[in-house]
Amino acid sequence: MDSSPVYPATTISNGSSTWFILPNKLLCWKRAAVKVVQVVFSLVAFILEETVTSCINCSPLYFFEFISCSALLFTLLLLALLSTQLHEKVGFTYWPQLDFVYTALTALLFFISSALFAASNSGRSVEVAAVVFGFLATAAFACDVALTLMTSGLPFKNQAPGKPAGNGPAAEPSPETEELAPSNV
Is there a contact between 79 and 39 (Cβ–Cβ < 8 Å)? Predict the structure, then answer.
């Protein structure tokens, strides 16, 4: 006697449950690697800045500290959101635009803070190293902006009607045109 089920299974199990989903529609391998480099350079710049024991003019040092720490934390958060399915659970639909604006603004602010800190430090090796990693982080953020523009273009371009930018809600499906057959109950 055949022991096959009467009804076949309606769901397919996912054989491999992965935590990171790369590449995906928001983040390719190259950009993910650049974001990891951004996190590392921001972390090293922040750690080096924290080891500065005295300063002549502390305002540029504090600005550099704020930018390097903020860049580290927000880039790590953005990397975690974009490389997992967490971005789908947040309910925000403009991830490409947010990523582009954040990355470009951080590159600009990192450049300004690194330049100000370079101009006002006392020349000790730890300060020079912090500035170098600040400029390396600036380059990594600028590289991410350039990579985004080369691969997917400006994320603010007008999309065709019914086609949302990013991963927004899909356009309404067209109504069914076929009439339902009358049921014989």
Answer: yes
